Amino acid sequence: MSSDLVLEAKGIETHFLSRGEPVKAVRGVSFSLARGEKLGIVGESGSGKSALALTVLGLLDPPGKVVGGEVWLHGRRLDLADEREWSSVRGRHISLVYQDPMVALDPVKTIGWQIAEVIRRHNPAIGRAALRRRVVELLREVGVGDAERRADSYPHQYSGGMRQRVVVAMALANDPDVLIADEPTTALDVTTQAQVLDLLDRLTTDHGSAVILITHNMGVVAEFCDRVLVMYAGRIVEEASTSELFAHQAHPYTEALLSAVMRPDQLPRGPLPTIPGAPVALDALPDGCAFAPRCPVRQAKCELEPPPNVELGGLGHGKAECHFAVERTKAAPALPR
Question: Which residues contact 324 (CB under 8 A, 6 or more apart)?
Fold first, then answer.
């Protein structure tokens, strides 16, 4: 592993058993993450984003099962780790920000106590005074006013946006190398959403952490991410830098996702486009391209043959899993230099 790489996933396969048949939620996914990088993982609900994150974190519960692949953090293989090893890694080297902060917060314990518990778990020798200072420092860092007093408040005494900041503070408590944020802005208003994204952005600058942002919001991706993975039916169907992806889409699914986003520089001309149909059933995958039944440019071979995963680096793009990725990329306008 390169010294700049902090996290690497290789060929991840995650299944859920349903009525005796495997639901193939993640199918041979590989990606890497560099220090200080902000990586977006996007796609519709059911595309495999959260299942991939839980697999990487070793948090997949039955009926979920990891049936293949490897996860490496700083050259340490995690997918073979037992729960004791994972306990030394989670919260210290890799942390998770939940979509719903109340999932992570105990309603009967103070905010300060809960942050302190995260710190104490990986620093058992820390003294009470130093622990209190660190808790207050973290709350101030994530923008909680009057942090000394608010540390003694309970979760119900915080607004939704403030609770999300607390969850970020807990994830930051031990300066992790990687932070995975699973839909951290979905339930927030636009102003609070921008504040949380700014907080995560400062995390990469001030702490050198890498961030994986899981979202269905392409506007958030455009504002925050350096690179994007587009997932559909458990596969990465396109990967590119954010600027490349928004300038040109090598996969029709990515194009469809972006077409459904309201752009602030354009007035709407009627209803936004939608992607016809529904995502393919993951326990009854077709022989060909999983997106073919919904694809407006499909041809006969799309329904018969699995699409190749094409490297498009020579054409100024990332890669895409489409029979026509090369032709689509060649036909696209050149990116400005």
Answer: 297
